[in-house]
């Protein structure tokens, strides 16, 4: 059973990518919707197996590390696999109606969509540094192609900037991987940890970790390496923007977090942990401030992503040289933040796309009077904003509460100020959109009403972001299950 589930997660998305490459947009849409059902069932099946039996290592083709490619299937990995299935399915269903099928280059959306999905699953399950890189590059190249599908000069400029940032981040990451291999003779993360426990820390290992984390921070758009993100997320098609913000930037952070949690204590330092935390704090404040000043709706949401990403990097100072209970609180808080942000930001971008489609303009001031004509999408946008503002009972509130407890428990009270300031600034840019939409004008024209299915999808995602806070204990319990290791790597 496990064999078929693993094959379904890693290889069927590649098969669907090749299949849809041979079709036009309409036929690719039908094939994709069938594939979405399969992927959701496979993801749910693997999640149920891990929740029942615990995590395990899985060697592709029966070959274990170091000879074969080893996958790490644990509670965190399958949680992200299931999250990807939910968000990608929503974006795929939305794109099938939202994207114009008559433009010839739009037929490439479906192959890129499936390549992206395959890369995401490979990253969540990857157990060695090089195959994580392969998955990450598949994600980056697919994302660049999806941004370029806008077809306009601005979309092409944004995609080229995105590509250059991704390549530079990959170069830094690969330099770190080369150093790790030269010092430890293995690319398996578990293997590196095993050798660190048996031997002294080699000189230069800290530099290797720093290079990898720096490259991944660039791919995640951590301040001040964020300049490529707002143009790419803001100008892409709304379903693409939702995928980029909800899932793509999370993949590089996921790898950075895995590396820090496994190698941070022996290879990192307190100064490095605090520096990353300060950069995350700056991202929260600077990204939120710029979101308040943007004139275009999707740019507001894009700069909001810069701010929300900053919270994730508080993981570094809150898990270094602290008690096990505090570290666990920080890890749980960041995990809930990733999940709630993915659901809320996907809902926000899809709702914003509906509002732009209704008004015919991307500007915030064009929303005048739209509250009377498109209240459903506006309500979805606001519900997603509740999670970003960290109001109860949302998943964002549960995440920030755990991070607050970890900050106080570790004696690092200054991160509490960042959490409070970020919530207030989030309220400022969300209510700014609502203020514009509730203004009335005698010159307001009748708005275009998008299909009702386009409005239902962001509403479901927003409700899930709100409801996450009510089931957070059940979600986190899967990640606390025992891990069955199959010998020393």
TrEMBL record:
Question: Where does it mainly reside?
Answer: membrane
Segments spanning the bilayer are 6-23, 30-50, 76-96, 108-126, 132-150, 162-181, 201-222, 242-261, 267-289, 301-322, 342-361, 373-393, 413-435, 456-483
Claim: Membrane is one of the keywords in the record? yes
Specify the protein's topology with respect to the membrane. Answer: Multi-pass membrane protein
Localization recorded for this chain is:
Cell membrane; Membrane
Ranges where the NADH:quinone oxidoreductase/Mrp antiporter transmembrane domain occurs: 127-422
Name one process (GO BP) from the record. Answer: ATP synthesis coupled electron transport
Name the domain of life this protein comes from.
Bacteria
MF terms (GO), sorted A to Z:
NADH dehydrogenase (ubiquinone) activity
Q: Which GO terms describe its cellular component?
A: plasma membrane
Q: Which UniProt keywords apply?
A: Cell membrane, Membrane, Transmembrane, Transmembrane helix
- Of which family is this protein a member? Belongs to the CPA3 antiporters (TC 2.A.63) subunit D family.
Q: What is this protein called?
A: Hydrogenase 4 subunit B
Organism, by scientific name, is: Marinobacter vulgaris
